[in-house]
Design a protein that fits this description.
- By secondary structure, the protein is α+β, with helices and mostly antiparallel strands.
- The strands form two sheets. A five-stranded antiparallel beta sheet has the order 8-7-6-5-9, with no helix packed on it. A four-stranded antiparallel beta sheet has the order 1-2-3-4, with no helix packed on it.
- Strand 1 and strand 2 form a beta hairpin.
Length: 171
């Protein structure tokens, strides 16, 4: 993203428009799927870059440990240890881990037309639906009289109380 273009656009925005953009950005920063993808792509010892909003600098660091809501890192330059939010990490530098890639392939192999699945929409609402079509990158899901396109990463199979996959329902 070009920071200069964004700043120029924001300078012309009304306070109301800025408030609306802020609400949208806040929702995306709290998006569980985005945060999980970043967390799952990190491992101890990995070198990352992150944005320090107190100094407005991009810093290089080494991952020490990934926690549920934050990541502990040690800065390369001054060796200071920080607990940073996952949203501060530059994901453009990250490559999807082999573990994450394998999990997606495994998930694809388990899904079938008729499976009841759950996913979180962009507004953080849980949605339950039935798979109607398996596509190369997404799954077509029927939810509340609507068809949705959902990425394989976002899907959770619906299971019964014993942990067995509920593999089909009548549409």
């Amino acid at each position: 993203m070009n920071d200069l273009n964004i700043l120029q656009e924001l300078e012309n925005a009304s306070l109301f428009d800025l408030y609306r953009v802020s609400a949208i950005v806040d929702n995306e920063l709290e998006n569980k799927h985005r945060l999980h993808r970043v967390r799952d792509s990190l491992s101890s010892g990995q070198t990352i870059s992150w944005f320090d909003k107190s100094t407005h600098n991009i810093l290089k660091a080494e991952v020490i440990k990934c926690h549920k809501d934050y990541c502990s890192v040690q800065n390369i330059e001054d060796k200071a240890v920080w607990d940073i939010e996952y949203s501060a990490i530059n994901t453009n530098d990250l490559v999807m881990s082999k573990k994450q890639d394998k999990e997606i392939r495994d998930r694809k192999g388990k899904l079938e037309i008729g499976h009841l699945i759950m996913f979180i929409d962009r507004f953080n609402n849980s949605k339950y639906g039935v798979i109607t079509k398996l596509n190369p990158k997404t799954v077509s899901v029927y939810v509340d009289d609507e068809d949705w396109q959902v990425s394989y990463e976002a899907i959770t199979l619906h299971k019964d109380i014993d942990g067995n996959v509920i593999d089909s329902i009548q549409i």
